[in-house]
């Protein structure tokens, strides 16, 4: 049985309460700075330790002057640096078929199907979507093929919702934070995982929360 949870304004998922874990927890750490499962029903979801996450930035419908590829690369570097390069890494994918995560503007047609999950709600800034079943996220099949690909996470960004305070880089880095496993929002406006981010890099609070998260047992594997 599945239950759909709309996680506003940045994270959308269909989640199943699980009884088992797919990866053992690491040593106990200080508590996270904020609850990274606030929007995921208390579930820990993340990529398995050692994963290199391939990210494809779709250029479709990206307006002139919007550097979606550059801001995504900066966000990837920021989150990798937050862990000192341990636990997971990123690489840029040349095609959607080679990607684990797709980043696109909300005006562009989605390159993947929803794998049977409900259409995610539309939010002003960004939406991070994955479709879980049992203990792992389903692969989101490529629209029109060839093949099914391996995409697990789809990120839609609305550049029109950004401004001098809530910048594109802040928004993209925030959504990538959800994509690596932070299923919650910080109550502190100085954190990139604040619901309406105004900073472009993870704070010490974001970093401590992620470091706690990646050492916990996985309920839902991306």
List the secondary-structure elements in sequence, H or E: EEEEHEEEEEEHHE
Mean pLDDT: 87
**CATH overall fold name:** Collagenase (Catalytic Domain)
Q: What amount of the residues lies in strands? A: 15-25%
The tally of strands reads 11
> Which spans have pLDDT < 50 for at least 5 consecutive residues?
1-26
Cα distance spanning the termini? 19 Å
User: Which value, in Å, is the CA radius of gyration?
Assistant: 16 Å
Identify the CATH architecture. Answer: 3-Layer(aba) Sandwich
What features would you describe in this structure?
This protein has 222 residues and is of the alpha/beta class. The chain has a single domain (3-221), classed as 3-Layer(aba) Sandwich (Collagenase (Catalytic Domain)). Helix content is 17%, strand content 20%. It has helices spanning 68-82, 168-180, 204-213, and strands at 3-7, 11-15, 45-46, 51-57, 88-92, 101-105, 126-130, 132-133, 136-137, 153-157, 220-221. It has a 7-stranded mixed beta sheet, with helices on one face. The protein has a two-stranded parallel ribbon with strand order 3-11. Helix 1 crosses helix 2. The longest helix has 15 residues, at 68-82. Residues 1-26 have low confidence and may be disordered.
Please name the defining characteristics of this protein.
single chain; 222 residues; alpha/beta; Collagenase (Catalytic Domain); seven-stranded mixed sheet; two-stranded parallel ribbon; 20% strand; globular; disordered N terminus
